[in-house]
Amino acid sequence: MDERRREYREKRFREEIERYRRERPKIQQQFMDLKRDLANVSETEWNAIPEVGDARNRRQRNPRYERFTPMPDNILARGLADGQTTTSVNAMEQRLGGITTPFTSQAQQMDIDMKKIGEARTSLMDIKLTQVSDSVSGQTVVDPKGYLTDLQSMIPQHGGDINDMKKARLLLKSVRETNPKHPPAWIASARLEEIAGKLQVARNLILHGCEECPKSEDIWLEAARLVQPEQAKSVVAQGIRHLPQAVRLWVRAAQLETEVKSKKVVYKKALEQVPNSVLLWKLAVELEDEDDARLMLSLAVECCPTSVELWLALARLETYEQARVVLNKARESIPTDRQIWFAAARLEEAQGNQMMVPKIVDRGVASLQVNMVEINRDQWIKDAEECEAAKSVLTAQAIIKSIVGFGLEEQDKKHTWLSDAENCAANGAIECARAIYAVALAHFPIKKSIWLRAAYFERSHGTRDTLEELLRQAVTHCPQAEVLWLMAAKTRWLAGDVPAARSILARAFEANPNSEEIWLAAVKLESENSEYARARRLLAKARASASTARVWMKSARLEWCLGELNDGLAMLEEATKLYRQAPKLWLMLGQLLDELSSQKGLTTEEARALKERARAAYRDGDQQKEVRQRCLAAEPHHGEMWCRLGKAPRNWRMKTKELLTLVADSVPLPA
Questions:
Q1: In angstroms, rounded to a whole number, what is the distance separating the alpha carbons of residues 380 and 215?
Q2: How far is the C-alpha of 301 from the C-alpha of 332, rounded, in Å?
């Protein structure tokens, strides 16, 4: 039926909407025809339209602040007189049927003179000022520094309204009277009075609450806090008599003792009453020496066999053999805790049994899975970071290797592992990050990006040996990665081992015979070590086997730097024939031809260099040094002569200081 009438309902709904829109059109529709005419309004007419006034909502935007002033006494007296009742009856009302029964009660006539009240107030103020004034004119007996402190002690130390405090006091009183066995009501009442500054009232209330609710641990603790220190012990003792199993009361009783011997006595009595309290055992053990603590912990693990902290504390105090026994018992008592397995691994690491550490961690993971323990991967990584912070590096690495791939999909492993390694490095867990990179490289041995990230990590956080070993493995697994070969060669070169760098580049040539980067890196290595003959031979081989515009440019520049301008010119001419679209070759050719032409001249841009040369010629050594320092501080990298000499191939190794002197010497002195 509903389906059959749906079409009718929809049609009726559309008709109602159309009728409603016809009867109540939108403002946009009402002014639509007028808006079309706006296109015919000229610019002059637009400018002639007056600005809208700023009178709208002026009262809301600029509210008028209320002012409160004291009311005059005459108005108060007039209002008081208007509110008085009359004691006489009008004769006209009697005659015309008004009030027929006179008002029998006689109201007392109150004649209050408000002027006299004001004078009395002024006199009272004068008396108070006279009392605080001293015999010496201009001095008072009021301490200005302690005045605010005295006021603070007189008023309640609470930011709320006094009326709110009164309401809260009445409400809590009603709760106490309705349910006197409700401890929170007594505690709240006492704290309210404490806030109000009525400490004695608060003490009386809380002690009364202890009588009404003797089985409440919280109310006894609150009473011990509020009463005088010399009464706190007796209050706690009364609470313990009513609640001998209350751990917090025993702890409070021990805290009230000042001597260590007395604290031990309290804790021993407490353990007799509550032998299964881990907190009491821990506090009691902290007061004992090592031997007594070992004995107490032996009893503690028997009374609290499920406390991991007590088992681990006992294992730390025992010898190696006995600690293994303790940890085995702990695993039997608590088979679902991972910290026991970590402690066992750290124990073996401390004894130098490095082979046992990963085995123990792997067995721990298997045991926890058998006992249906949910393994949180992030939490285990944090545990590994804590182990590394405790100098248990092997344990941390074993935890990482056993858990880092747990619960990850194959497509997510690379991204997740790299992110985990960065987080560990950011947290200072360098060994954990190194272990994660090791797992990632073992799983993805041919991923160049992972090898690069690991190499950057070792360069920042590792040693030169670890970096060289990593790069050696990297070029073995990724021989086609040019950047890895270059990093390996540069590492050896920076270490001063040039033959090893040559050997690495030679192996790189075998793996990448046509690589431009490797050829140029080998040339740079030989050039930096002044092996120009080797560099020329390498460039000749590169032009033959891996000919590129860049190789020809480097060859010509080497000849130019060595002063063989004709050979460089010949190379550039041949290179421009082979690579006509290489702009740098043409630029170098033009520069070399300009160098050969030897056309020099003085320009205005070289004025500073000329001035420096003149000062150097006519000043003493200290003045020359001062001027030279000022020139260096100004970074003189501008001017035509500076650019020409600075970019000259023969000056490619000169520093700024050397170039400054060269430019100054090159500027001719005017006649």
A1: 43
A2: 12
Residues 40-59 pLDDT 10s: 888 888 888 777 655 556 66
Phi and psi angles of residue 648, each rounded to the nearest 5 degrees, phi first: -65, 135
d(CA 298, CA 308): 13
CA distance readout (Å), 94 to 102, 103, 105, 560: 10, 13, 19, 138
pLDDT of residue 136: 52
CB 316 within 8 A of CB 366: no
CA 288 – CA 306 distance, rounded (Å): 22
Question: What distance in Å separates the CA atoms of residue 188 and residue 405, rounded to the nearest whole number?
Answer: 54
Identify the three-state secondary structure at position 153.
Answer: helix
Query: Coil, helix or strand for 219?
Result: helix
The three-point CA angle 588-589-595 to 5° equals 85
Question: What is the Cα–Cα distance from 570 to 596, expressed in whole angstroms?
Answer: 13
Phi-psi region of 636 (alpha: psi -120 to 50; beta: other; left: phi over 0): beta
Express as a percent the part of the chain with pLDDT over 90: 31
Give the count of beta carbons closer than 10 Å to the beta carbon of residue 6: 10
- pLDDT tens by residue, 155-206: 444 445 566 888 888 888 888 998 899 999 999 999 999 988 889 999 999 9
Its pTM surpasses 0.85 = no
Q: What is the pLDDT of residue 21?
A: 80
Check: CB of residue 551 under 8 Å from CB of residue 582.
no
Longest Cα–Cα distance in the chain: 146
Q: Which helix (H) or strand (E) holds 630?
A: helix 621-633
- Cα(620)–Cα(459) distance, rounded to whole angstroms? 48
Tokens representing 416 are 């997740």
Torsion angles phi and psi, residue 143, rounded to 5:
-80, 110
653 vs 96: CA distance, rounded Å: 130
SS (H, E, C) 252-269: HHHHHCCCHHHHHHHHHH
Separation between Cα atoms, residue 232 and residue 220, nearest integer Å: 10
Domains of the chain with CATH codes: 162-256 (1.25.40.10), 605-666 (no CATH)
In whole angstroms, give the CA distance from residue 521 to residue 487: 10
Both tokens of residue 468? Answer: 């060289």
* Contact between residue 509 and residue 518 where contact means Cβ atoms under 8 Å apart: yes
Amino acid at 528: E
Q: Are 477 and 450 in contact (CB under 8 A)?
A: no
Report the alpha-carbon angle 433-470-363, nearest 5.
Answer: 50
**8 A C-beta contact, residue 435 and residue 461:** no
Residue type, 325: V
Buried b / exposed e across 541-579, counting CB within 10 Å, b at 16+? ebbeebebbbbbbbbbbbbbbbeebebbbebbeebbeeb
